[in-house]
Amino acid sequence: MAAAKLVFLAAALSLFYLSGAADTATSFIKNSCKPTTYPDLCFASLSGYAQTIKNSQEQLIKTALSVSLDRAQSTKGFVRKLLKFKGLKPREYAAIKDCIEETSDSVDRLSKSVSELKEVDHSRGKDFLWHISNVETWVSAAITDENTCTDGFAGRALNGRIKASIRNRIGNLAQVTSNALALINQYAAKH
Fold first, then answer.
1. Is there a smaller number of Cβ atoms within 10 Å at the N or the C end of the chain?
2. Which long-range contacts (CB under 8 A, 24 or more apart) does 18-25 make?
């Protein structure tokens, strides 16, 4: 009977510890997201990774970049499927094709950023600044690619469900990527 009580007590303490660690990590993410442009989206997109992030700023930016890359890949697939819609106007078709190219570029730049971030882990001194600068440049360029996609749907001639769908999807991607860049900039400023 005493052994069962000890097992129960150990399990209860473990749950209490894990709950406290999760609360600490969640608070860390929430505080880190406050200075971003879209803090609620930042927290919503990263809080599910609290156990991985813990209180590590390095893990936070790696996760933010990975989330952004995943969104970019998903968005690219979504935009690609739009080409299969029947009855697309020639201008819509051209804008979608351009958007696929822009989202492909965004995926490429975010992939390079994820790889470059691994180099930051292994660098020291000036190399750190070089690698983190590359990451900042590529993430910023990815945001430009995303915005260029939506620019292709400017004007009333392209109003409709396709335009609304793309703007919604690309807008969300640009916001997540913007948040990742803000977190990377915070990290770089502390080093």
1. N
2. 21/51, 21/54, 22/50, 22/51, 24/54, 24/55, 25/50, 25/51, 25/53, 25/54, 25/55
Does pLDDT of 13 surpass 50?
no
Q: Which one-letter amino acid corresponds to residue 72? A: A
Domain 1-189 of CATH type 1.20.140.40: yes
Q: How far apart are CA 177 and CA 156, in angstroms?
A: 27
Sign of the four-CA dihedral 14, 17, 18, 19: positive
Kindly state the DSSP code that residue 86 receives in the 8-state scheme.
T
Q: What is the DSSP letter of 153?
A: T
- For the record, the structure tokens of 43 come out as 């927290």
Q: How far apart are CA 30 and CA 8, in angstroms?
A: 33
Q: How many other CB atoms are found less than 10 A from the CB of residue 5?
A: 9
pLDDT at 95 over 80: yes
pTM (2 d.p.): 0.85
Query: Which 8-state DSSP code applies to residue 89?
Result: -
Measured CA to CA, the distance from residue 176 to residue 67 in angstroms comes to 8
Closest CA to 29 of 15, 17, 41: 41
